[in-house]
Amino acid sequence: MLRQIFLDTETTGLEIRDGNRIIEIGCVEMIDRKLTGNNYHQYIKVDRESEEGALKVHGITSEFLADKPYFEDIVGDFIDYINAAELIIHNAPFDVAFINYEFSLLGNTKKLQDYCEISDSLVLARQLHPGQRNSLDALCKRYDIKNEHRQLHGALLDSEILADVYLAMTGGQTDLLLGDEAASESGMNASGSFRKITAERLPLPVIKANKDELQAHNAYLESIEANAW
Questions:
Q1: What CATH number has the domain spanning 3-203?
Q2: Given 40, 60, 108, 182, which is the most exposed site by the fewest CB atoms within 10 A?
Q3: Are 45 and 68 a contacting pair, CB within 8 Å?
């Protein structure tokens, strides 16, 4: 059984060094390339305001978070949910760093990669589409995935969109895949660095031409040669 979880977070700002914190976690579960509906979503209260730029992106105010639990109140359930799965995150170093920072504030010496494998879908997108924009919005447009309802960023919504994008990037639903070779090969290795998702997992079948097709092909080549300058 291949259990993959698409994860996204929203934060009060971009830099941990400025004391920014996680205020939303969203996860979408997929088993054997089928979405299960067993998702995880949690808003998190923090004792600081979101930076103006971040607030424009996610729209999550301190007033909205006032009655939400602190990270220390939900960390156990979160770890139980993601434990032993493969996490797929777009631009994984950002979210992983913030989650590990939250762990450290609670005195947890473990890191996210100690609980699960981590794959960066942005690495895969850049491999498939070098030199192009590979944001989630750009990938939605490229793969014709509807995201008009995404007026603001939200962790659960973005995780749902990422799941659709990932399936499109890696070849569609389960019945289009060729056995275990379709399983994700990405994550963090023993040294804690990210391994790349490769695009070589989905070999295409070789369909050989029949006798009539070969004859037609040879005739076409002969006609080109006869009319060459």
A1: 3.30.420.10
A2: 108
A3: yes
